[in-house]
Amino acid sequence: MANHNPPDLITARMAKAERRRMALSEMAERLSRASDIAEDLLTHENPELRLKAIHALNQCTNTAVKLYEVGELEYRLELILEHVGIPTNTVSRVA
């Protein structure tokens, strides 16, 4: 049976973005902890483990940059939506 009362898509998208924002901030904390652990392994006596730590730091850095970019894009999108008069949740950045 067809849904004759479609949900408010903008409200649904903003709610999803808010849930994601919380997930992004949690991910940033996890990346920070992982980077600290990998950095500690850079001085390990095993050269293979040091190489893996270098690779892990590289991956963490790339992921952190992407995480920041997503946060910035979401922030800019919310500003645009507010400017055109579409109500949004509170505008906040992922740091």
Description:
The chain is mainly alpha-helical. It has one domain (9-83). Helices cover 73% and strands 0% of the residues. It has 2 helices and no strands. It has helices at 9-40, 47-83. Helix 1 runs antiparallel to helix 2. The N and C termini lie far apart (44 Å). Mean pLDDT is 80; it is low at 90-95.
The number of distinct structural domains comes to 1
Contiguous low-pLDDT stretches (5 residues minimum) are 90-95
Give the proportion of residues in helices.
over 70%
Mean pLDDT across all residues, rounded? 80
- Count of distinct strands: 0
The shape is rod-shaped
Q: What's the Cα radius of gyration?
A: 19 Å
* Beta-strand percentage range: under 5%
Distance between the termini: 44 Å
Total number of helices: 2
The helix/strand series, from N terminus to C terminus, equals HH
Largest sheet: none
Which class of secondary structure composition applies to the elements? mainly alpha
Short descriptors:
2 helices; single chain; 95 residues; mainly alpha
Task: Summarize it.
With 95 residues, this protein is an all-alpha fold.
SSE inventory with pairings:
Blueprint: H1 9-40, H2 47-83
Helix pairs in contact: 1-2
